[in-house]
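Ticket #4471: structure export looks truncated?
Reporter: QA, pipeline team
Priority: medium

Steps to reproduce: submit the single chain below to the structure queue and open the exported record.
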Amino acid sequence: MKQIILVCTGNTCRSPMAVELLRKKFADDSDYSFSSAGLTAIRGGRMDERAKMALKKTGIEPDEHSSRPLDKDLVKRSDLILTMTASQAREIKERYPQKEEYVFSLGEFTEDGRDVNDPFGGSQSTYEKTREQMEKMMEEISSRLADFFTETTKTPKEAGKFDTRSDRMVIAAGSDHAGFSLKEEIIDWLEEEGYKVTDVGVDQEKESVDYPDYASRVAEKVAAGEAQLGLLICGTGLGMSMTANKYAGVRAARCHDTYSARMARSHNDASILTMGERVIGTGLAKDVVKAFISTDFSGGRHARRVDKMENKGEMNE
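Actual output as written to the record:
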């Protein structure tokens, strides 16, 4: 029997919901066993009541659930690990590189391509929308599991069956003359990693240019949805950030350390990273970019705060 583990953050909402949906889907199939865990779970927690209610509306009476953290023993016993988000999958791969070929987000394993964002702190409707998204994914998973486990000569990625986030994400990048060299190095590195980068300029560093022109180009692409994320580099990162933040729906964050980069995405839903070539070296800059693009927005209480931030203009009227 194949052991499949569903993983989220706290193991009280998404992953136990996913397990119940899969158990219903595979009720007559004894080839698979489904269980769940959380990357930062506290042992012994119960399933969120709103998650239970969302399942009950589909006729599922959830089993008793006790949350638990993902540990090396669970990973060792697993045949496949499916996470809710791409960043969770990457974290598990970094912790357990020996299992890299058997770890995917639900979006990667299916053709959905999206993360399953955390409904925690949201309304009952939010939980039901999360369940509906996962229900559609489960339909596809049921047809893909057999192919996954019978493919022995190649990994799923080598076989070309599963997308990765880098295949889908477009990053708009721009700089002025002071950030040109670092921008070029970062773009080359991102493209080597498989990301699609739209370079809006500048194309040389000899002639002085005005940073607002290039910050605007990137901000416009992000605001229009032509790029999922943006990268702007000038001498300090300050002017680029100030300019990009003038655009509706764009949140630019100047970060020169990985913690700030992760928090800018996780807590503030930032869509553009700005840096200063005169402030940060290439090695650290790559780490900061990696932290930024591999982190997902946490939602929940942070979504409420971002909404308040976006509506600040209305509050001042």
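Status: closed, not a bug. The export was complete when the record was re-opened. Leaving a note from the reviewer for reference: Confidence is low (pLDDT under 50) at residues 152-164.
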